[in-house]
Design a protein that fits this description.
Blueprint (H helix, E strand, L loop, with lengths): L9 E4 L3 H9 L5 E4 L17 E2 L8 H11 L6 H21 L14 E2 L9 E2 L6 H14 L4 E4 L2 E8 L5 E8 L9 E4 L2 E4 L20 H8 L4 E2 L4 E8 L12 H4 L3 E4 L17 H13 L4 E4 L8 H4 L1 H9 L9 E10 L2 E3 L11 E3 L4 E2 L12 H18 L11 E2 L14 H13 L6 H17 L3 H19 L20 E4 L1 H12 L8 E2 L1
Parallel strand pairs: 1-2, 1-10, 2-6, 10-17, 16-18
Antiparallel strand pairs: 3-5, 4-5, 7-8, 7-19, 8-9, 11-16, 11-20, 12-15, 13-14, 14-15, 20-21
Helix pairs in contact: 1-4, 1-10, 2-3, 3-10, 11-12, 11-13, 12-13, 12-14, 13-14
Length: 532
């Protein structure tokens, strides 16, 4: 097997804001940045329209930001994590500006323009180019990474498995270049640490705002290595994806409702009236209300005309362009919307430095579970979390003791298999997406979850390709966690268990989850281990 790179190198997997920021913070340590596509392509960061939350206003404070985060998290956000991230937010904005990010400012240029989004008690959302924050920030970080002498960028490289040493610690990766069609023998790249920054799981759902390549690959890698996974059942469905028969679905940013846009059904009724917070209620509340309208046979629209009119093109150029590309005119007509899988609150359980339960393995961004988001993410906290933890992960890696040489060979965490490098949807993946949308979606119940678990378990066992089996595996892990949480909380709504239980997290490993799936498949259910 070919071997490249010295053991003292750090490997960062992922080309979104989490991966790029981590690589930059690790300087001057040598970093190999592995991305499955050319930098800037197929990442979720460019799709982030809302912005980055930071308590910068004269009437605001990190403590207020933390309080809003905890309220949105429905009892499962960690107060210490919320306070720490909120306190770091202003310095994260300063760091981005130093990297070249240009945020929207007042006419004089003296102050940043701060927007309002759902469940925030103050205007604290920093934007760039109106509703193009994600792309603007990503472009700046890509340029900074390309200029950093300590960072080696390997584009079009897909990680097949994590490499483990004799003690079970992660000590590198096995990866293959997509430029050779992924058909060559996976190369072993040893390292002193691996940081997974691989993004989310939205591509597992038929309705999603995520890139279709967002299939939870990082979760599968960590699961095979034995990492503890936490709160996988909590999938946030953005209430206002634009319903224009596109896949993935373009997003109508929450900031539109922050500016006063209203939700109406086919009859012109404002169905959010009477619900606490109305259009600015937490995302899970708004998503369920819209879903209920759709289930009742109504269409749902976001009406911006009365508050923005022609100004929507200036204030929200991204949304305007997306609408027009879909044949819609937001100046004259309301925008058709529906909930779509948008963000995964669960992930690889990490500590306050971003370390997983497996030595040598770290996780940053959406693939991780830090304790910040709880059962429902507060709008515009996702990019912030990635930025804050990128710095803390880099600090932790710089401080850790390590050996400059290790004995070969290293073993893969699982049998090294060639994963599909094509993003074209196979029939199996289409079926997985349908199962997840129908049975592990906005509304869930026991019989549907059991059916999903049995279906997905069969696909894990019988799948034709490693890529399809991993997609089925991550879907199965989410379904099992949803089955285990016999309550309704935040983004997890059970028709058969509408009331909340005492606050608990859900934790599992791959072995535990597969055992439970087998029992359910044989009509004997067993709970996932629950921890306070």
């Amino acid at each position: 097997m070919r071997r490249t790179n010295p053991f003292d190198r750090i490997i960062v997997v992922g080309g979104g804001i989490a991966g790029l920021a981590t690589a930059l913070h690790l300087a001057p340590l040598p970093v190999t940045l592995l991305v499955a596509s050319p930098l800037g392509q197929h990442a979720s960061t460019p799709l982030a329209q809302g912005g980055i939350a930071a308590a910068l206003g004269a009437d605001d404070a990190p403590a207020l930001h933390a309080t809003d985060t905890l309220q949105a998290g429905a009892g499962l956000s960690d107060p210490g994590v919320a306070a720490r991230v909120a306190a770091a937010a202003p310095s994260c904005i300063e760091w981005l500006i130093a990297q070249g990010a240009a945020f929207d400012r007042t006419v004089t240029g003296d102050e940043l323009i701060l927007g309002l989004e759902a469940a925030h008690s103050r205007r604290r959302i920093v934007h760039a180019q109106g509703d193009r924050t994600g792309k603007s920030v990503l472009d700046a970080l890509i340029q900074a990474v390309r200029n950093a002498p300590s960072i080696e960028i390997l584009e079009d490289h897909r990680v097949a498995d994590l490499a483990l040493d004799a003690d079970g610690a992660v000590a590198g990766v096995f990866c293959a270049s997509r430029r050779s069609g992924g058909s060559g023998e996976p190369a072993l790249i040893p390292s002193r640490a691996v940081v997974l920054a691989t993004g989310g799981i939205g591509g597992l759902y038929a309705h999603t705002t995520n890139p279709l390549s967002a299939l939870g690959g990082g979760l599968a890698l960590a699961a095979h290595a034995g990492a503890v996974l936490r709160d996988l059942e909590f999938v946030q469905f953005h209430p206002t994806a634009i319903a224009a028969c596109l896949d993935p679905m373009p997003l109508a940013t929450e900031a539109l409702r922050g500016e006063g846009a209203k939700l109406v059904n086919s009859r012109g009724e404002r169905f959010m009236q009477g619900i606490s917070g109305a259009e600015l209620a937490p995302r899970d509340v708004v998503a369920r209300a819209i879903f209920a309208q759709i289930q009742a046979g109504e269409r749902v629209f976001l009406d911006t005309r009365h508050v923005l009119g022609e100004h929507i093109a200036q204030k929200f150029p991204g949304v305007t362009a997306l609408c027009r590309a879909a044949g819609l005119d937001p100046i004259r007509d309301p925008i058709p919307v529906r909930p779509a899988a948008h963000y995964h609150m669960g992930g690889i359980k990490v500590d306050d430095r971003g370390r997983s339960s497996v030595e040598g393995l770290w996780a940053c961004g959406e693939v991780s579970s830090t304790g910040l988001h709880g059962a429902n993410r507060l709008a515009s906290n996702s990019l912030l979390e990635a930025l804050a933890y990128a710095a803390w992960i880099a600090d932790g890696i710089k401080e850790m003791e390590y050996q400059t040489s290790m004995e070969l060979p290293l073993s893969p965490s699982f049998a090294v298999r060639h994963r599909s490098v094509s993003h074209q949807e196979s029939a199996s993946l289409l079926q997985i997406r349908s199962v997840m949308d129908r049975q592990v979606g906005v509304i869930r119940e026991e019989s549907g979850l059991k059916d999903a678990i049995c279906d997905l378990r069969a696909r894990v066992i019988e799948g034709h390709s490693a890529g399809e089996r991993d997609a089925a595996l991550v879907s199965l892990l989410i379904a099992i966690s949803a089955y285990a949480r016999s309550e309704s909380r935040g983004a997890h709504q059970r028709l058969d268990h509408p009331d909340p239980l005492p606050e608990q997290h859900t934790e599992t490993t791959l072995d535990q989850a597969l055992h439970i799936a087998a029992e359910i498949d044989h009509e004997t259910a067993a709970p996932v281990r629950r921890v306070a």
